[in-house]
Amino acid sequence: MAALRRPLRRQGGGLEEPGTRRARAQGHLSREQGFRKSGGPHPRPPRPGHPDLADPLRPLRRGGGLEDAVRAKPTLRELRKGLPPRKNDSHKGDFGHVLLMAGSRGMSGAAVLAARAALRAGAGLVTVACPASQQPIVSACVPEALTMALAETSAGTLKTESLAGPLEAHENRPYTVLAIGPGLGTHSDTARAVIGALGSLAVPAVVDADALNVIALQPRDQIQALFERRGAPCVLTPHPGEAARLLRLKTQEVLEDREASAEGLALELSCVCLLKGHRSVATDGKTLWVNPTGNPGLAKGGSGDVLTGLIAGLWAQN
User: Fold this and answer.
1) Which domain holds residue 263?
2) In total, how many domains does the chain have?
């Protein structure tokens, strides 16, 4: 039976039996190059005119905006520069405090996933501000997170006046990063709370999901003025549908030129735009990064909530 579980040796340079020198070399190459362990590359749809990003250091140059070289995949050493080693006498106050405004009736899971991600990313403290009816759920699922039960509408979403709680708490113990949007809903009361939070909390913000949908419904000049006044950086994390709403385009138009769409949002709203999808792209309007990792397993509800928490948790420590 053990022999039946061993893969067959193929002729002509295919897979070798496990444990052989060639099989180990294939596995090493697969991991280094981002390939499946079977040795074959991930399928990639043809993109006429776009460079092959198999080489993570290959530059991508654009004719009318993104002129800097693109790092498709930064090295682990580069990523570690943003997270210096922790001292032995560190405490939770040294690693930032994330305020997560998330969740609504039927969407408490979005708040839970984002909060867990922020904590696992290393944030010292995470406070989840959510509708009062969802607070027991969030608290039970993420006991290490602080929670704030806020006033809610009849639909189970945040009321406009609920913003007073986070603002008062911020005055007593300032937050390091605001993460807003997962599972919030787009009720008119909630929309005013979202705009109020972005306008009143002058801390770095990760804006996702329903917060992006709320922004897309506002007059363009008002949103541009809001981001210009903030005095703190923002990261927007739309999927193609949310990006299309923000840009007043069709989703297919965003998909046809994802790099230009991300660049347009970054420049228009003076922010960093991380456009999710196959080979997610991120840009500040000057330099574009392409992430060649990931797989179809991420195509499920909750992946974006985890991303929001991950970015907020890492940012809080910087």
Assistant:
1) 76-83+91-316
2) 1
Identify whether 175 is part of a domain: yes
Distance (Å, whole) CA 27 – CA 15: 10
- What was the pLDDT predicted at 168? 96
299 within some domain: yes
Contact present, 308 and 113 (Cβ < 8 Å)? no
CATH classification at residue 181: 3.40.1190.20
The stretches in the chain having pLDDT less than 70 are: 1-74
SS (H, E, C) the chain: CCHHHCCCCCCCCCCCCCCCHHHHHHHHHHHHHCCCCCCCCCCCCCCCCCCCCCCCCCCCCCCCCCCCCCCCCCCHHHHHCCCCCCCCCCCHHHHCEEEEECCCCCCHHHHHHHHHHHHHCCCCEEEEEEEHHHHHHHHHHCCCCEEEEECECCCCCECHHHHHHHHHHHHHCCCCEEEECCCCCCCHHHHHHHHHHHHHCCCCEEECHHHHHHHHCCCHHHHHHHHHHCCCCEEECCCHHHHHHHHCCCHHHHHHCHHHHHHHHHHHHCCEEEECCCCCEEECCCCEEECCCCCHHHCCCCHHHHHHHHHHHHHHCC
Whether 234 is in a domain gets the answer yes
pLDDT digits (tens, 9 = 90+) for 241-269: 999 999 999 999 999 999 999 999 999 99
Residue 25 placed within a domain: no
Q: Are 168 and 201 in contact (CB under 8 A)?
A: no
pLDDT at 78: 76
